[in-house]
Amino acid sequence: MRFSLSRWLRPEMSECTVCGRMADARSNAVPVPVRHPAAREILQQLCMGCRSSIPWIGAPVCRYCGRPEFCPDCPRRQDKQMAFCRCAVRYDDRMRDMLALYKYRGSERLEPVLAAMLAAAFERVCSELGGRDAAHIFQAVTAVPLAEERLDDRGFNQAERMAVSLSQWYGVAYLPLLQRVRHTEKQSLKTRRSRIVDMKGNFVADRDVMGRIPFAGVSRFRILLIDDIYTTGSTVNECARALKDALAEAGVASEPEVYGALWARS
Ligand SMILES: [Zn+2]
Ligand SMILES: [Zn+2]
Predict the structure, then answer these.
(1) If you measure from the C-alpha of residue 214 to the centroid of ligand 2, how many angstroms do you get, rounded to a whole number?
(2) Could you give the number of structural domains in the chain?
(3) What CDD domains does this protein's entry cite (predicted)?
(4) Domain containing 106: what range?
(5) pLDDT at position 147
(6) 20 C-alpha to center of ligand 1: Å?
(7) What is the mean pLDDT of residues 166-181?
(8) Nearest bound ligand to CA 24?
(9) What is the pLDDT of residue 1?
(10) 156 inside domain
């Protein structure tokens, strides 16, 4: 650790994980909408500027996708495989930069910060399901898988990393239940309609991993799905379809429910 005069003079100050500036006690005036102590602590280490610039989604307007304003997409969506999902923040320029720094430039220090932010979406899902004890609400947490070629380039799946953090904090088993079937072109090159069509049949559930879900005595079977960005919702929808089909086929649950927690809503 490099020597910091202000740290030496004022030991109650610490360096902000995001920007590196000193965070002081005044930062605590900016509230953090997360209850879990480990996640709170991570967010409380951010400076006042970084903390106050997080565009939290305080009140979702769309009950399905968690969008914080009127949503023209969900009411007309015919095929809803997910129960609902919630997103922690709006995907604005700052959030886009932060995610890019982590995903493409490998800034590992941001990983716990992103996971701690995602915790806000997860806790909202739990409270809307009427409870605070995540371990009793969900049988497993899983993540949207990356295409293999992208996994090779990047070396990690950001959604999986975030899901593992949540699993550890809230005591819900993490299982890599999903696999990608085939590669689709980079999504950003496509129109909304062709993206939705292309996603069909893109994911399958891994039967061996499915066998590790603790089933006994479960009245309602719920799985939580994690991803970083919600854009059209087609990715989470197709993942939910693959999970539900596989669970029903394997006789695990006749009507399993899949919920989503995503880091940002674009
Ligand atoms: Zn900062
Ligand atoms: Zn919506």
Answers:
(1) 32
(2) 1
(3) PRTases_typeI
(4) 15-265
(5) 81
(6) 6
(7) 94
(8) 1
(9) 47
(10) yes
Residue 56's nearest CA partner among 66, 42, 45 is 66
Q: Which residues surround ligand 1, an ion (CB under 5 A)?
A: 16, 18-19, 47, 50
pLDDT tens across 93-150, in order? 999 999 999 988 888 899 999 999 999 999 999 999 998 689 889 999 999 998 878 8
Ligand 2 center to 25 CA (angstroms): 38
Q: Is 4 inside a domain boundary?
A: no
Count Cα neighbours of 78 within 13 Å in the Cβ-side half-sphere. Answer: 1
Span 182-238, pLDDT tens digits: 655 545 555 665 554 455 678 999 888 888 876 655 667 899 999 999 999 999 999
Q: Within a domain: residue 86?
A: yes
Ligand 2 midpoint to CA 171 (Å): 29
**53 Cα to the center of ligand 1, angstroms:** 9
Residue 170 falls inside a structural domain: yes
